[in-house]
Amino acid sequence: MRLLPRDERFFDLFIAVAERTVEAAGLLTEMLQADENHRGRLVDSIKRLEHEADQLTHEVVTRLDRSFITPLDREDIHALASGLDDVMDLIDGLARRAKIFHVGEAPTGAILLAEVVKQASEQILIAVKGLHTNKNGVLPACVIVKRLEEEGDSLYHEWLAKLFDGSPDPMMVIKWKEIYDNLEKTLDCAEDAANVLESISIKHG
After folding, report:
1. 41: helix, strand or coil
2. Measured between alpha carbons, how far is 139 from 5 in angstroms, rounded to an integer?
3. Which one-letter DSSP state was computed for residue 168?
4. Which of 20, 23, 31, 67 is positioned for an S-S bond with 7, CB 3.0–4.6 A?
């Protein structure tokens, strides 16, 4: 029996953020596959999820300030909250850029990278759930995220090079390079979040 209460709500909040990130990543892939007339609704849905995730992250920070004893080290809670927030913010930013830029039909490479982002976010969710329910599941999920980041890095370089094939429209090159850069950055942030989860799991294993 613990002499002082330990707030377990942090796990529920992290799971809720990770679930919204998975949903947003799926909508990002769907948005890139959609024609331009149908993208606005999907961008708005991603923004709604990003706003909900922000509120949940704010609750994490508020609880961290109020809780005397936490289930994880305070710096780990802060690092995980920040890492998950970064991934969601980048997904939201990608969706808004695609809408603002009027990018037209997405290259296959952008769709493939968005799918890798979705897969990475699904593994992050598995790892986050594992912190509380199945610690043996955390490390394998983190390993997969790192493999997906490497896969995404290869796709990024391959399809970035294809942007410059032939005599492309310079404005379209600028627009899609920006999107490719941010898709790759999203995977980097997913790997950063996986590193935090891995560290937490090892520390508390």
Report:
1. helix
2. 28
3. -
4. 67
- Cα distance between residue 64 and residue 91, in whole Å: 26
Calpha distance 86→186 (Å, rounded): 8
Overall average pLDDT of the 129-157 stretch: 93
Buried b / exposed e along 79-106 (16+ C-beta atoms within 10 A): bbbbbbbbbbbbbbbbbeebbeeebeeb
Predicted local distance difference test score (pLDDT) of residue 174: 96
**Residue 71's pLDDT band (boundaries 50, 70, 90)?**
confident
The three-class DSSP label of residue 133 is coil
Please give the Cα distance from 197 to 189 (Å, whole number). Answer: 12
Q: Please tell me the distance from the alpha carbon of residue 151 to that of residue 171, in angstroms, as a whole number.
A: 27
The phi, psi pair for 68, rounded to 5°, reads -80, -40
Q: Is the dihedral of CA 128, 80, 92, 146 positive or negative?
A: negative
